Amino acid sequence: MTGVLGRASAPDDEPYDSVAAVYRVDVPGDLPEGTLLRLHWTGDAARAYVGERLVADQFFAGRPWDLAPDRLPPGEPVLLKLLPPAAGAKVFAPGEAPVGVAEVRRAEWVTRRRWTLGRT
Question: Strands (DSSP E) along the chain, which ranges?
């Protein structure tokens, strides 16, 4: 997609409804506090929905995408829509995805823990 002055821009809604790879992730109702949904994915751009509500979006940068628990209501599935990179797109991303490929390669629940240390 190109925006004003031919610069790369975020895709409109239509491609997410017509050409996106779609994945569903079920969110357990008993996640420990501080748990993130970590997605190892490839593509160009992605969106996460709970029901009809857009809760997060991301552009591919070669790193995992972490979704915070406050965006994921317990017991409600998350619908992921990923767009593939277009042939000839003038956008650089580290670890570029193959043209035409949009996929979640791995999804995992990651629990962050925090400890407070004191001096004795």
Answer: 21-25, 35-42, 45-50, 53-59, 65-67, 78-83, 103-111
